Amino acid sequence: MVWRRNPKGDTRNPEEVRDAILQSVLSQDHWIIEGVHHRWLVDSFKQADAIIYLDPPVRKRSRRIVSRFIKQRLGLEAGNYMLSFSHLLQLMKWNRDFDRKIRPDIFRVLESYKSKLILLEDNSYFEPYLAQWSANRPLVLAEAARRAEE
Fold first, then answer.
1. Beta strands in the chain (DSSP E)
2. Cβ contact 68:77 at 8 Å
3. Among residues 52, 36, 38, 39, which one has the least CA distance to residue 95?
């Protein structure tokens, strides 16, 4: 939604295009939206059956950033762009600052939707939820309800 990918380099979609793409996705019966763009995704939060927030610890995110950098530099993993050392440093700074600056803002936005919110520290915990969705059975939110009450 945010980026228009092309061989000569990615460009950011204008807000009108981005918002039109979002509305097109939301008009479908089933959808999943991924990203940290919490400020302009409020319509998706309103319409979502569940909001899954993957919340790995900062050290785990750091390891994943470095691992992705190494794999891409060695040609073992494809990416939308080649990570430079300066970009790696920017990602590490963003990651360090995320919990202090961005995460609190995300949770302020999600406060109105906490009955739908599922907090997971690891994406492997998502598999039971995904299995229920793919089987077209109601999603069991007992864990989410418990966490929302905390």
1. 3-4, 11-12, 51-54, 117-120
2. yes
3. 36
Which burial class, exposed, middle or buried, applies to 50 when counting CB atoms under 10 A from its CB (0-12, 13-18, 19+)? middle
Cβ pair 116, 86 in contact under 8 A:
no
| pTM summary value | 0.70
Q: Please report, as a single letter, which amino acid is at residue 114.
A: K
pLDDT tens digits for 53-65?
A: 888 999 999 999 9
CB 3 within 8 A of CB 11: yes
Render pLDDT for 7-34 as a digit per residue (tens, 0 to 9): 777 788 888 888 888 888 888 887 787 7
Residue 60: exposure state from Cβ atoms within 10 A (0-12, 13-18, ≥19): exposed
